[in-house]
Structure formats: C-alpha cells, structure tokens
Design goal:
Structural class: alpha/beta
CATH superfamily of the largest domain: Type I PLP-dependent aspartate aminotransferase-like (Major domain)
Radius of gyration: 21 Å
Bound molecules: (4S)-4,5-diaminopentanoic acid
Number of strands: 14
Strand order of the largest sheet: 4-10-9-8-7-5-6
Largest sheet: 7 strands, mixed
Helix content: 25-40%
Order of helices and strands: HEEEHHEHEHHEHEHEHEEHHHEEHHEEH
Distance between the termini: 18 Å
CATH class of the largest domain: Alpha Beta
Oligomer: single chain
Number of helices: 15
CATH architecture of the largest domain: 3-Layer(aba) Sandwich
Shape: globular
Length: 427
C-alpha cells in the first residue's frame, strides 16, 4: 500500500484541496487506497514521498515519452529559465515551435499554442463554430476532450471513472448543443448527418480512444468522420492530445493516413510542461483573433520555458523511438495476455503502440457500452496489489497506460510477473 508519508500528506491535502488532489483520477478513489505522493522521478521510475521506487506506467498521463528528467530536456529548461520565465510577447522559440508542429502534422497549416489540452479543444471548437456559423458539436461516448462545459457530455477519463459523464454545473442549453454517438459506429454518424447535417459545426474524436481505456478505431471509422464532415460543410477535429507523437511521430493521422480539418495536441508536444496547441486548415485558423473574429488568448501561451522543453523533446523523436516503443508494447501485451490466460481471468488487453489497457472484461472493447462492462471492483483490487509491488499503473480502469524509451525489457518482465501475482491475489 501507500507509504506512510503519502498517507500523512494526503490527510493534510484533503482538508484544503478537493479530494486532496489537483485532478480527480489522482485521488485513487475508484481503485481504493490512497494516492502515492511523488517526491521525484527519473527515467522509467517514480519515487514516493518515503523514497519507495515505482515503475511508472502513467508517464504524467502521456507526456514523458523519453522518460522522466531526460538530461537534454532538463538542460533546455534550465537554460531557458536563465533567459526569463515569461514575457507576454512573441519569441523566436514560438516560431520554431509552430514550424516544428506543422512539419510533423501536414494537415496543420496554421497553429496556435495554448497551455493545456482542455484549452486546445475548447479553442478548436470555438474556431470551428466561428468558421461554420453553426452551433452543434458531435462527440463520441467515452471520449474525453478536457473539462470545457460543452465537452463534459458522456465524457470519458475521470468523468467516467467517477460515474459523472455528464457533469453538474454545466448549463442545460450548453450541453444540449453537444450530440453524442457511439464510438466506431459509422452508420449512426451517417444517420445523424442525414438528419441534422446543416446544423453541425464539428465532429471531435480521439482517433484512438485513451480516455475509456485504449479503444482503437475500426478500419474506415476515421475516414468516415473526415469525409462525412467534408460532405456536409462541418469541421472534423482529431483530438490528438494523447495520441499525438505517441502512436507515431505524426500521431494517429499519420498512422491511419487520414487528414482531419483540425487537430488538437498536448502532452508529448508540451515536453512535460503546461503547453498544448490547436491548428488546422488555414481558412479555419484565419478566423482566430487578431486575424478573424474568434477570440482566444492566454498570458502563458507559448511560454518560453515550456516551448524550450517541448522542442528538446520533439527533436529526439526519430523512428528508432517508435520501433523501440512498439517492441516494448508488444512484450507487455503478450505478457499480460499470457498471465490472464494462465489464470483464467475474463479480461482483454487492448494496445496501440505504447498505449495499453488491461480491461477486466472479455472484450473486445469497441465502445463505451463495452468498456463499462468491465469488472471495476476487480480492477481496483488488482491495482492495489500492483501498487504494493511497486508498479505504478493508471489508477482507473478507464485510462491508458504509457511506456517510455527509458523502460527496459527487464522492467516489463518484472511488471508482467507482478501483474500475474496480482491477478491471482485479486481473484
Ligand atoms: N485526465 C487525465 C487523464 N486522462 C488525468 C490528468 C491528471 O490527473 O494529471
């Protein structure tokens, strides 16, 4: 279980921070037990407040593709900090950053830096609404695009973990402008457009879902989104906050060879700092202020320290990174599948590259309806045993685990062995 210092810190934190955490899933509530408070991290490892070492499969929820405290990124941050931490004025770094994102994502002709994935999705939708002059947004059940009011409708991630896919505090008229569809259901998408196509501003999707656990798109699903939007004058938005530079350097759109109208990015492209971006076709992005009438701004947008970290990370993402992650991912998947089989556990492992989920349901999981069939109580028991064995797995059934290039084969084998023991003990 959690170390004594973490327990003490959590007790103090709970008195003054909701749930003792600054983002709900971190509270470990759906898996039982108490969160591990982290004192430092290096490579593939996190160290708890008492110094206990954990092999990390959360990776700050995705950004740490090269592992924690990568020396080149640390150096870039120190150097940038010496030159000043924030100017509220443009820098050459921001030009380099925009050029880099456009090089990696050919569907992006113009891009804007913001500070979080939530902001990126919120701003992309505002731009799409401004561009089309329409209001209706379509999202898929179990996809999570940050915590903006109109996106907390049948949402995944923490909203799903805590059974509040439709958050309190969201005005009914706001939620009404968002329509939801089942993921991977092309027929439902086409039917909706046949009925209401002229009202729809945008369709936003996670091109591989990470926020209800890993759910890959079925062949043709992403193409159908892009083509249907195009046929009806709506904007297709791929939320690649999680998948961007993760499932391939150019995200899922590179892997699937599909070009959406707009893309939102965060996590890896932020280099582990509060930095994200949204961009897309020039005609849409030219609606954004000060060129166009769609307002969006931010004091810390394109922050020089964050951009320096991001550039240092992005420069290092060559093909060898993805080959390595694929091989580690395959090893983890094979190990987990074997362990479940050996012990007759009704479970399935879903993986795309270095994103993996062990679902405690037979599977396959292709939608929200399938995902919620998971035995979350058993997942919770299994998770507690994993933490006790020094394995920091995402504390929710409905999240993806992430690998980094700092993980070794020995790390994966030790995790698989721990997972096998934890399966037996959590039966
Ligand atoms: N919503 C994030 C996972 N999909 C969790 C962010 C965090 O707790 O840091």
């Amino acid at each position: 279980m959690s170390d004594a210092k973490s327990l003490e810190l959590h007790a103090r934190a709970e008195k003054i921070i909701p749930g003792g955490v600054n983002s709900p899933v971190r509270a470990f509530r759906s898996v039982g037990g108490h969160p591990v408070f982290i004192s430092r991290a290096e490579g593939a490892y996190l160290y708890g407040a008492d110094g206990k070492r954990y092999t990390d499969y959360v990776g700050s929820w995705g950004p740490m593709i090269l592992g924690h405290a990568h020396p080149a990124i640390v150096e870039a941050v120190i150097e940038a900090t010496r030159r000043g931490t924030s100017f509220g004025a443009p820098t050459e770094l921001e030009v380099l950053y925009a050029e880099k994102l456009i090089e990696l994502y050919p569907s992006i002709e113009m891009v804007r830096a913001v500070s979080s994935g939530t902001e990126a999705c919120m701003a992309a939708i505002r731009a799409a609404r401004g561009f089309t002059g329409r209001e209706v947004i379509v999202k898929f059940e179990g996809c999570y695009h940050g915590h903006a009011d109109f996106l907390l409708v049948k949402a995944g991630s923490g909203a799903m973990t805590f059974g509040v896919p439709d958050s309190a505090g969201v005005p009914a008229p706001t939620a009404k402008a968002t329509t939801t569809l089942p993921y991977n259901d092309v027929a439902a998408l086409k039917k909706l457009f046949d009925e209401r196509g002229a009202e729809i501003a945008a369709v936003i999707c996670e091109p591989v879902v990470g926020n209800m656990g890993v759910v890959p798109p079925e062949p043709g699903f992403l193409e159908a989104i892009v083509e249907t939007c195009r046929a009806h004058g709506a904007v297709s938005i791929f939320d690649e906050v999680m998948t961007g530079c993760r499932v391939a350097r150019g995200g899922m759109q590179e892997r699937a060879n599909v070009r959406p109208d707009m893309t939102t990015l965060g996590k890896i492209v932020g280099g582990g700092m509060p930095l994200a971006a949204y961009g897309g076709r020039r005609a849409i992005m030219e609606k954004v202020s000060p060129v166009g009438p769609v307002y969006q701004a931010g004091t810390l947008s394109g922050n020089p320290v964050a951009v320096s970290a991001a550039l240092a990370q992005l420069e290092r993402l060559d093909p060898s990174v993805y080959a390595r992650l694929e091989s580690l991912g395959a090893r983890l998947e094979a190990g987990l599948v074997k362990a479940c089989k050996e012990h007759d556990v009704p479970a399935c492992v879903q993986r795309v590259g270095s994103m993996t989920t062990l679902f405690f349901t037979q599977g396959p999981v292709r939608s929200f309806t399938d995902a919620v069939k998971s035995d979350t109580a058993r997942f919770g028991r299994w998770h507690q045993k994993m933490i006790a064995r020094g394995q920091y797995w995402p504390p929710s059934q409905f999240e993806a685990s992430f690998l980094s290039t700092a993980h070794t084969e020995a790390d994966i084998d030790a995790t698989v062995a721990a997972a096998r023991d934890a399966l037996v003990e959590s039966a």
